[in-house]
Amino acid sequence: MEAARARGHTVALTTEEPDFVPDWLVVDIPEDIYAEEILYNLYQHSNVNVCTIDGISHKLGINSDLNISQSLLGEYSAPEYLIVRKPVMKRCSALPAEWFVFGGASDKMKLYEKFRRASSSWRANIVIGEFAPCPNIQYVNSRHHVWIDPGEIIFSIMSRCDKACLAMGMVVWEALSLSLPSYVFSYTDRHLQSALAMEEAGYIKAFGETGLPEPKVFREFLQQPFTPTAAPIDFLGAERVIKLMEK
Q1: What are 89-133's pLDDT values in tens digits?
Q2: Is the dihedral of CA 234, 237, 239, 240 positive or negative?
């Protein structure tokens, strides 16, 4: 499905405006297994400057045989060039809780279900993403406040929590913007590479394998003490990208 979706976007971008040749293309490649194919299809014009920014933090490596003139592949990544929405605080009914839990827009690892089973006694604000299956309400206990696709109030929900249990993705950076200690699980090997790099830099606590462990190990991981030591992001990534274009 992800491959089909990536290729679908590629076809759309190369067929909708076939005669339009931009000066710059700024792209975030979601899976490097498709990066060369996508770039080859999209950027065949020798006068196009390409800035490949990976919002997750993993620097992308591209085969030089693609013949992309003046490209800036792999040089720009988070946190300096992170393009992320700024925290917006809005009124919401979220209760103070120990944990903020979010498994991503699709929750492919079923992080919520694992948290529910392994940590039922912990108070948590749990966000269910736009494309994730809704939980069976009869299994939601009173200590878990569940939010279905809450939009921008997600920052307000985060702000009521002490720690975060997250799937690797952009929400990790958003939690960091609120200085929320984050315990992060990875769905793919590439996510794990990024998570381990972020852990080494002092941003997060990363689980050292892909997927979710059995409940006892899951709970023990979340009980490990952790405080971020890296400096907070400055939200100037978009401005830095614009400066690249203006050179």
Answers
A1: 777 777 889 999 999 989 999 999 999 889 889 999 999 988 888
A2: positive
- Please state the pTM of the whole predicted model: 0.79
Token pair listed for 179 = 């200085």
Q: Is the dihedral of CA 204, 176, 233, 32 positive or negative?
A: positive
C-beta of residue 212 within 8 angstroms of C-beta of residue 192: no
Q: Cα(2)–Cα(9) distance, rounded to whole angstroms?
A: 11
**How confident is the model over 21-53, as pLDDT tens digits?**
667 767 665 554 455 555 555 555 556 666 666
Residues in CB range of 47: below 8 A, 6 or more apart: 21, 23, 69
User: Is the four-CA dihedral 64, 43, 37, 1 of positive or negative sign?
Assistant: positive
Q: Give domain limits for the chain.
A: 2-77, 97-222
**CA contacts within 13 A on the Cβ side of 31:** 13
Give me the architecture of the 97-222 domain, per CATH. 3-Layer(aba) Sandwich (3.40)
Q: What is the DSSP string of 100-133?
A: EEE--SS-TT-HHHHHHHH-TTS-EEEEEPTTSP
What letter does residue 7 receive in the DSSP assignment? H
End-to-end CA distance of the chain: 38
Rounded to 5°, the CA angle 35-1-24 comes to 30
